[in-house]
Design brief:
Helices cover 80% and strands 0% of the residues. The chain is mainly alpha-helical. It folds into two domains: 3-134, no CATH class; 136-177. The radius of gyration is 19 Å and the shape is flat. The N and C termini lie far apart (52 Å).
């Protein structure tokens, strides 16, 4: 197997198994591997690919396919996608069958309670990594915090909030020159 394709497997297969809480939980690790370890992308390139992958319908881990395509064309997208989905799918099938056989056990409840904060922490680390990768300004941090607060405490339509923040940025861009 080509060296690049093998490295894609070595990056995405272990992360697939680590994706507790969904694909968003491993974004920080994907960024670390592709930017800091292998130097395949700059922070900005990674942030751009993340934005593209989030704009497309489907799971958060579509970024693996996009990275594979960028690095290795059709073979890269195939290898990266399979490396991202096969290990976690196999683990899911095995864990689910085991999980259903032990319904109501004390250790099952303990695992559920223990994994929840881990998943939240991993998702938060991924979000923070993306915010740092795009070199967010003070205005960016303020609007991100404002949006998070508004979405948490109100029933505001997220699209209205996105449009409002985009309009703010356009206004600031034209005022600042």
């Amino acid at each position: 197997m080509d060296s690049l394709l093998w490295r894609l497997v070595l990056v995405f297969a272990p992360l697939s198994i680590m994706s507790i809480g969904g694909g968003q939980a491993i974004i920080a690790d994907i960024q670390h591997q592709t930017v800091d370890v292998y130097h395949w992308f700059s922070n900005q390139q990674f942030a751009d690919m993340f934005a593209i992958s989030r704009a497309t319908p489907g799971p958060n881990t579509l970024i693996a396919s996009l990275i594979g395509w960028h690095l290795g064309g059709a073979a890269g997208v195939l290898v990266a996608t399979l490396a991202m989905y096969i290990p976690s799918s196999v683990l899911f099938v095995v864990a689910t069958s085991f999980w259903h056989r032990h319904h109501g056990s004390r250790w099952r409840l303990a695992i559920e309670r223990g994994l929840a904060p881990i998943a939240v922490g991993l998702i938060f680390a991924g979000a923070l990594t993306i915010l740092e990768a795009i070199h967010l300004t003070l205005l960016g941090w303020a609007t991100t915090a404002f949006a998070a607060i508004v979405l948490h405490f109100t029933k505001t339509n997220p699209y209205l909030l996105i449009f409002s923040v985009a309009a703010l940025y356009v206004a600031v861009f034209f005022i600042a020159g």
